[in-house]
Amino acid sequence: MIEPSTVVDRLRRTTDTIVGEAELLERLASGRPLRIKYGVDCTAPDLHLGHAVNLWMMRQLQDLGHQVVFLLGDLTTRVGDPTGRSETRPLLTPEEIEANAQSFVEQVSIVLRTDPSVFEVRRNSEWYDGMRVAELLGLFGQVTQAQLMARDMFRERVAAGREIAVHELVYPVLQGYDSFAMRSDLTIVGSDQLFNEQLGRHFQQRLGAPPQAVITTTITPGTDGRAKQSKSLKNYVALTDTPRDKFGKLMSIPDSLVESYARVYTELPLDTVAALGSAAAGGGPPARDAKLRLAAAVVTRYHGAGTARTELDAFTRTFTDRNQPTDIPEVLVGTPGATVLDLLQAARPTDTKSSLRRLIRQGAVTVNGIRVDDPTKTVELTTDVVLKSGPRTWHRLRLS
Amino acid sequence: MIEPSTVVDRLRRTTDTIVGEAELLERLASGRPLRIKYGVDCTAPDLHLGHAVNLWMMRQLQDLGHQVVFLLGDLTTRVGDPTGRSETRPLLTPEEIEANAQSFVEQVSIVLRTDPSVFEVRRNSEWYDGMRVAELLGLFGQVTQAQLMARDMFRERVAAGREIAVHELVYPVLQGYDSFAMRSDLTIVGSDQLFNEQLGRHFQQRLGAPPQAVITTTITPGTDGRAKQSKSLKNYVALTDTPRDKFGKLMSIPDSLVESYARVYTELPLDTVAALGSAAAGGGPPARDAKLRLAAAVVTRYHGAGTARTELDAFTRTFTDRNQPTDIPEVLVGTPGATVLDLLQAARPTDTKSSLRRLIRQGAVTVNGIRVDDPTKTVELTTDVVLKSGPRTWHRLRLS
């Protein structure tokens, strides 16, 4: 058996905090397979590299024989938790929930093993559908209003003068009770879920069960450098993205993100990670090379080394090969973030706006080798950007 | 049919506010029997004159053919609402709840008619036992945390740094939904219940039903002049008190309460009420006479004019008849509230404390004709007090 402390140490690379570490070590030492709670709501999933950080940690534990309990919060989705969203989430139909749940399992299977010996799918409707109102109210008696309102998200809402519906307020109680009902030993979550999962420990203790350990993972900014990877901003690399898209999106991140991305999204040795970080900090061709290395490492993780090499070649060729002239004209741009249409206008000042829009619509425009369909898409000029419009026209855009 | 406005006007004598008066008038005009929600929790009842104010209003409506729906909050009692109490209420067993419910029905039948044509007993477990968690959470979605926290009692608790358990927080939601589930047209409550019953209107409207009207009633201080009639202070006249105790307790109230007691606890004409108030304000024998009139009117209401006359005679005899000398020695007392033992010591300074205690324990001591067993009982000297100790010893105690 691998030493419990070694198991935990291997997780540390992408760990932010561990609550209940002593209990976790003890349980690992017992030799019994742990039950790892992976709770999700059943809204339409689009898992990205950020989510995958947690999945890879669970995968490590699966490889040691531990059990991931994939808990679909179908009941709680019907209720709705608006974590980090300004608006209360729309209620879903049972059919939508079911479809989303299936999509979820498919996506997690990109990382997790799904054989029944290490993967179990549960739904929290299993315990909530049979629960009586009096019993639920009994659970409510185990927690105070002040405890719930201590949650960051609630405090932010109150500070912003926004409302908290009571079903939202009690959502953490349900999520917490889930841990008891499914006998969770450990859960690995984003730090925004720490509050709810600590309530899980609270309920387990109140109800006479051993409390789960909670590991929160490192949060990494989106590909645009913004703090949150968000569906509306599409600023992330999705697990279902093609290898080409993954590669291209990673090539578009700010240099300053290379090191942290390499640390949490790849298995590159940590000294390599540090070296990539230093190279990226200097800018220019070494930064470009560091990013290529990062992109290749991520694609390797998800699609294998062969695919990664293919994508690396394709990308390099697009930018440096026979098709692309060596003497691309440079265009200086005044603002660090502009739309594709703006950039195209800067590069081709004599063309009309409508003809440029048509070019984009025809699929004749690429940014760093990636085709762009939306004239209003923003391009960040954190490093130079190569803009191709039509079969033989290149421009290198540089922040002035 | 009596004019709806006349019906409402008759209730006004003991009404504080009416929410939804227009709807109430309209419903009365429809001629259909109204469903009047009389919701109670199932803790051990000891109904007093304050509760009876509401019951008499319902009785008026019963006499016009309207239906009182006596709603036992058995589910909500299992949950516990700590209205106005510093401590969370202990949870009761189903047997205790059932016993309390029976006692409740017995006590309300002192005022209400209980024939099925105008009286119906329901339990809120009828709808909550069959309700699923998801449905309850749906109700929670109809109300915000801020709405619930607006409740006076919650704000007071927060201000005092005390906790609010979540089951307590959601209690008003349950009480509010009750109004929908039982199709309440009207409820008559103390002002401390206005918040919860307005939530009832909210749910009825949200769920597509016409909202109940809410009448809140005049709150009258306890027999000791304190704001609240409370079980722990025993400062009220209970409906189950004997006629003698009712009479005696009413004779012990401060003069300043005579007018308001006469207004809300009797059916004396309002000009008589005003006259009693003036008489009481002057003190001395006219105040005493006003109080006798009040006590007789209350006893008449509950036990009939014959019994009231008997009690009036008995009381008067005790204080003024052959047994009681006309030249009772006066004792001046320095503080307006003292224990029976203190007063006895002041009256009989040569006796030992232990012998005085023994007198009390033997049942040989009366205060204003009422036997006292507890040496530590406080006596208010708002008017003179006649203390009898042993068969032939009287003292008139007067505040110096």
What is the assigned CATH homologous superfamily of the largest domain in chain A? HUPs
CATH topology of the largest domain in chain A: Rossmann fold
Number of helices of chain A: 18
Arithmetic mean pLDDT of chain A: 89
Q: Any idea how many domains of chain A?
A: 3
Fraction of residues in H or I helices of chain A: 40-55%
How would you describe what is shown here?
2 copies of one chain form a homodimer. Helix content of chain A is 47%, strand content 15%. The longest helix of chain A is centred in the C-terminal third of the chain and has 37 residues, at 284-320. Chain A starts with a helix and ends with a strand. The first copy, chain A, has helices at 4-11, 21-29, 49-62, 74-79, 94-108, 125-128, 133-140, 145-149, 152-159, 166-169, 171-181, 194-206, 243-251, 258-265, 270-282, 284-320, 340-347, 353-361; strands at residues 15-19, 35-41, 67-73, 119-123, 186-190, 213-217, 330-333, 337-339, 365-367, 370-371, 378-380, 385-389, 394-399. Chain A has 400 residues and is α/β, with parallel strands linked by helices. Chain A has 18 helices and 13 strands. In chain A, helix 1 (4-11) packs across helix 2, helix 13 packs antiparallel against helix 16 and helix 15 crosses helix 16. At the A-B interface, helix 4, helix 7, helix 8 and helix 10 of A face helix 4, helix 7, helix 8 and helix 10 of B. Chains A, B: Belongs to the class-I aminoacyl-tRNA synthetase family. Chains A, B: Pfam families: S4, tRNA-synt_1b.
